[in-house]
TrEMBL record:
This is Histidine kinase. Residues 1-21 form the signal peptide. Pfam families: Esterase. Keywords: Kinase, Signal, Transferase. It comes from the Bacteria. GO terms for molecular function: kinase activity. SUPFAM superfamilies: alpha/beta-Hydrolases.
């Protein structure tokens, strides 16, 4: 592994140790497999402190070597609030040829076969229910694998109701017919799905060609309900491309979670003629409904939308901003302040003063405080006297 990749991996590892302090191991008695299977469990740092919070779950095949790499990337992303906290489950597969037994398929049908079929049922019928009974999980499930396990996770897409919401396929060695079956599924799906696919430019032809066909067919299917990203990493091998893929995959899948940045502003907000407040509301509804992540509207995002409303003179939208503020921060002065700002900009200082007065009796938030409200009240009262 090149020196720079070793340093990146070490960084992820160090972060994961600090942020996933609740890393434990468990053995699950599997009726489907007839043996116990070992798993690694990574709980977020906030898990014990926040008893009401539920978390997305990331399931990792090849958990023996993917766990630390993924947990480090997740920890780094959550530190900057670019990714939500999540529970990570790593399935151990490096004992006595388990990896190859687990991924056994029938080459004629291109489907799990014998021990592969048993392992498929173990994950869906035993592991996922076990985790969801034992831990506080949100409805959003991700699954990832590398090479043959990256191919195997796609079998869950073949089900009428896919078990997972997001799939991370790192240089998959695709099963027969998979480059056709996956796009067919995507073309018909009625529910949102996320799919990440990557390959190294150093991968062998046997791996690269089916992946390229799969990419082409997915693009032809072109279903807006499928969030899809495909990466080809230059100068990488079948193994080193994994460390490039992991953050790219996670940031792609959780794009809607990220705070508003310049790209999102320029591409999605600045082009709007109206509906700025609606955009903010939909962004956070998508986090809740699609990702199962419940967080209040970030004040940084709120200010971005407020500023564009003021810049475009869309003052009536401040009323909607007030509703959003009251929904997420009912005890704070945000909602009443937005109404005061709306009346002020519309030339009604009397009503503006009243709203600022109401706000002054509520809890400060962000850069809003009582002193600021008192200043606004005086300003509006002075302005009201001048306009009489």
């Amino acid at each position: 592994m090149p020196q720079i990749m070793k340093k990146v991996y070490l960084l992820f590892l160090l972060i994961s140790i600090s942020s996933f302090a609740q890393k434990t191991f468990d053995n699950i008695k599997s009726v489907k497999l007839g043996v116990e299977r070992r798993i690694t469990i990574g709980l977020p740092a906030s898990y014990e402190a926040n008893k009401d919070k539920k978390y997305p779950v990331l399931y990792l095949l090849d958990g023996d070597y993917l766990f630390d790499a993924f947990s480090g990337a997740v920890s780094y992303g959550t530190y900057w609030d670019d990714l939500p906290e999540m529970i990570i489950i790593g399935i151990h597969q490096n004992k006595d040829g388990e990896r190859y037994d687990d991924t056994t398929i029938d080459q004629n049908t291109g489907l799990p076969f014998e021990k592969g079929a048993e392992f498929f049922e173990f994950i869906g019928a035993e592991l996922v229910p076990y985790i969801e009974k034992k831990y506080r999980t949100s409805p959003f499930r991700l699954i990832a694998g590398h090479d043959i396990t990256a191919s195997f996770i796609n079998f869950y897409l073949y089900k009428e109701e896919p078990l997972f919401n997001a799939y991370i396929c790192l240089s998959p060695e695709l099963a027969p017919k998979m480059e056709v079956r996956i796009p067919e599924k995507f073309a018909k799906t009625k529910k949102p799905l996320s799919f990440y696919l990557s390959v190294a430019d150093g991968d062998i032809k046997k791996i690269k060609e089916p992946i390229e066909k799969l990419d082409s067919n997915i693009k032809i299917a072109n279903n807006p309900l499928v969030s899809y990203k495909y990466d080809v990493f230059k100068g990488t091998t079948h193994y080193t491309e994994v460390l490039h893929s992991i953050p790219s995959a996670l940031y792609s899948i959780f794009e809607v979670y990220r705070p508003i940045n310049s790209t999102e502003y320029n591409d999605k907000i600045a082009v709007l003629q109206t509906g700025y407040a609606d955009y903010l509301e939909k962004k956070y509804l998508a986090m809740s409904e699609i990702l199962g992540v419940q967080i209040p509207v970030r004040m940084s995002d709120f200010k971005v939308i407020e500023n564009v409303i003021l810049k475009r003179n869309a003052y009536d939208e401040l009323g909607r901003m007030a509703e959003i503020g009251n929904t997420y921060y009912p005890k704070a002065m945000l909602g009443e302040y937005e109404l005061g700002l709306m009346y002020e900009k519309m030339g009604d200082p009397k009503h503006a003063s009243k709203k600022y007065q109401n706000a002054s009796q509520m809890e400060p938030i962000g850069d809003l405080n009582k002193d600021m409200m008192y200043e606004k009240i005086d300003e509006m009262n002075t302005l009201a006297k001048k306009t009489k």
